[in-house]
Design brief:
Two copies of one chain form a homodimer. Chain A is of the alpha+beta class. Chain A has two domains: 88 residues, Winged helix-like DNA-binding domain superfamily/Winged helix DNA-binding domain (Arc Repressor Mutant, subunit A, Orthogonal Bundle), CATH 1.10.10.10; 60 residues, no CATH class. Chain A contains seven helices and five strands, in the order ααααββααβββα. In chain A, the strands form two sheets. Chain A has a three-stranded antiparallel beta sheet with strand order 4-3-5. In chain A, strands 1-2 form a two-stranded antiparallel ribbon. Chain A is globular and about 50 Å long. Chain A starts with 11 loop residues before the first helix and ends with a helix. The structure holds a DNA duplex.
DNA sequence: GCTTGTCACTATGAATTTCATAGTAATATG
DNA sequence: CATATTACTATGAAATTCATAGTGACAAGC
């Protein structure tokens, strides 16, 4: 995609959007952060078609956010993992999550995931700083726990996906 | 767009992406945060076609991020402004900017915009907390200054846009 | 040794979206 | 009365997306 407005600009937002400015791409990244490393898990949980997943993973790899790791030869099978650049995207996803929780859901729907801030042992809240201790949140100092309802939703998606094959 | 994976999920990221999961949408929001409130400014600076701008603004209005304000009757003319929900999106853009500056540009290209943290009077850095005083950054406590190179880029885009009509 | 299952995709074609180019409508300005 | 300003709309070709189906390589069970 040649693109004079985003490739040749100094604007970091435009630059970023050429790499992650797509719904499926962000959903794939969400899954990688959620430790879904296999193609089928990503496909099932994002709801994308296999072509979409293939295309996004390929582009993410080209852009340096994702790397493939062989976990099986014969047949050749890969797992997808975040690189340093991919891991660095976490604050964006955290901010997007905070906005989504605050502005895209009714109050009675609960949180999908609750984070515990491991450095202080208490609830981290929505960030960017821990609501319990005030320190900036880093992904490696976080323990995630899915709300039962959200966990069930994911389990159901996986079952539905497997059943449809 | 009926969408069983993003409309019916508890995941705030998926919810958010149905509203802002698109390159043009994010670029339009960037312009609104940059205080471009007129249709043509947005069109010129994003590089989108008028249909794209129309469609995104309409959707953003429907989703409650943007409101139209009449600034002229006869002919009827509107300006586009962020609502509270739209303003609340700022941390996402800030995080995206930080990631873009850090990972989508070569070191020798400078920053596009530098922020001064008004509460401490010093450089705010890339956030989410002020690099000078450590406090969380809020948009209304920030003064933005465009790098001369970036300002020239924007001026040139505006000139090119006007010349092409 | 043959069927069934697993995993990661690819193939196909219709439907939708995007893009470039051009044009319109209402009014102000010189 | 001609030109400029502003905010769009129209059109059709090109590209992308989607749903549905299928493939290839192997493992595991019987």
């Amino acid at each position: 995609m040649k693109d004079n407005t985003t490739d040749q600009t100094l604007c970091p937002v435009a630059r970023a959007e050429t790499e992650v400015g797509d719904r499926w791409t962000v959903l794939v990244l969400r899954e990688l952060f959620a430790r879904s490393h296999r193609f089928e898990e990503i496909q099932a949980q994002t709801g994308a078609t296999p072509q979409m997943v293939t295309a996004r993973l390929k582009k993410l790899e080209e852009d340096g956010l994702v790397e493939r790791r062989v976990y099986n030869k014969h047949p050749l099978r890969h797992e997808y993992h975040l690189t340093e650049k991919g891991e660095a995207f976490f604050p964006v996803l955290l901010a997007l999550r905070a906005w989504g929780e605050a502005w895209c859901k009714s109050r009675k729907e609960g949180r999908a995931v609750n984070y515990t801030h491991l450095t202080c042992g208490k609830a981290a809240g929505l960030g960017p700083v821990c609501e319990s201790c005030g320190e900036p949140i880093h992904r490696n100092e976080l323990a995630a726990e899915r709300a039962p309802k959200y966990q069930r939703e994911r389990d159901a998606r996986w079952e539905a996906f497997k059943a449809s094959r």
